[in-house]
Design brief:
2 copies of one chain form a homodimer.
Chain A (H helix, E strand, L loop, with lengths): L1 E5 L3 H12 L3 E5 L6 H10 L3 E4 L1 H6 L3 E4 L6 H6 L8 E4 L19 H8 L4 E4 L6 H5 L9 E6 L2 H13 L3 E6 L4 H16 L7 E7 L3
Parallel strand pairs in A: 1-2, 1-4, 2-3, 4-5, 5-6, 7-8
Antiparallel strand pairs in A: 6-7
């Protein structure tokens, strides 16, 4: 599958690496194509990955992953050109600058706001509830970490659930896009435990089923 | 330890059963002391448990567990008499009547509201993020389910963390009481997955540390 990833920061790079290893082609949409960090990432991934403008990346793929900081997201989406009909995976969290909490979006989630900005696109929320280190690798965990996916459209959501499994997660359909409000709160809890409670980034949640 | 439990519904009964088995004495605060369901519960637990008014239960214990439905909580607390100096464990979630979401408490959590109702008490949030069946037993899970505990006062919180371990959970200090906002959202996510996503009540979250 061709996958556009907007942003090659820690989340975008981690997902790109994982998916390249499961035979997907990665099109990073970036602003600075000459950045040394980006060149190193592309060298590491090899021929499965390339970098280009957001518009070219989005045009190359059916699935567009939003791995930008929240504050840069609107501009990144605006630079993509038409997104109607595409599956958008929103990995953002609307964090305050000091990471102390989520911005007040009037009760709405970032994902719902993105859906309003991109009419005709199929927006799913995923890859926002755990840290980038857990996307890069799940080695050392006794169970596959859970990845909750929310979205209103069944076929695009099925694609996202499959991509979550390809990235090593236990994928769970969390319901419609409005549930992103709870997924963003869940992300804030992870971030709070990691940063404020001193747990660091090497912990992850598993969703266990009872074996009766 | 003497533990008062306000309410002998599914959560109160499950916690009372577990703690009685770890040598705590359980004082159920109830409205109808003659209810057949309560008598059966007391017969089952044996001499470690008894039932009485909320006021007598609260007077008998240093730890008071709030296991009432959210709508009955204010009245239950008012009927307890003085609570200053006691450790209150808030297990409630401010659910809408149809369980479709949380009531709007103006951004505040139920736990913070309870703390304002009970000046001088040490309020901790715990036992709200998973179902009563998971409090009754964790048999059949590969790892101990996590129990997140929030509270502002270290010594009372340490007691609650120990009680969470006594009830079979992996206890985690989630930080100050304000984090209850995230714990109540986390509860709503569990309830949503259980009821709306058809997952039932036999699933639980584990917090895994990476083994490097």
């Amino acid at each position: 599958m061709d996958i556009a990833i907007l942003g090659a920061g820690s989340v975008g790079a981690a997902l790109g690496r994982r998916w390249a290893r499961t035979n997907h082609r990665i099109h990073f949409g970036v602003r600075d194509i000459e950045s040394p960090r980006l060149r190193a990432l592309l060298d590491e991934i090899g021929p499965a990955a390339s970098a280009m403008t957001n518009a070219r990346a989005a045009a190359s793929a059916q699935v567009v992953v939003i791995a930008t900081p929240w504050r840069a997201t609107r501009e990144a989406l605006d630079s993509c050109g038409p997104l109607a009909g595409k599956t958008l995976i929103d990995c953002t969290n609307p964090l305050k600058a000091d990471l102390s909490g989520l911005e007040d979006l009037g009760g709405e989630s970032a994902a719902e706001r993105i859906a309003r900005w991109t009419p005709g696109a199929f927006v799913c929320k995923a890859f926002n509830t755990t840290g980038a280190a857990n996307m890069a690798s799940q080695e050392g965990y006794p169970l596959a970490p859970v990845m909750l996916v929310a979205g209103d459209d069944p076929a695009p959501k099925a694609t996202v659930l499959r991509l979550a499994a390809d990235a090593g997660f236990d994928p769970i359909d969390a319901g419609p896009l409005v549930v992103s409000r709870l997924l963003e709160a869940s992300a804030m809890l992870w971030i709070h435990l990691a940063l404020r409670q001193g747990m660091g980034s090497d912990f992850a949640l598993a969703l266990m089923r009872r074996n009766k």
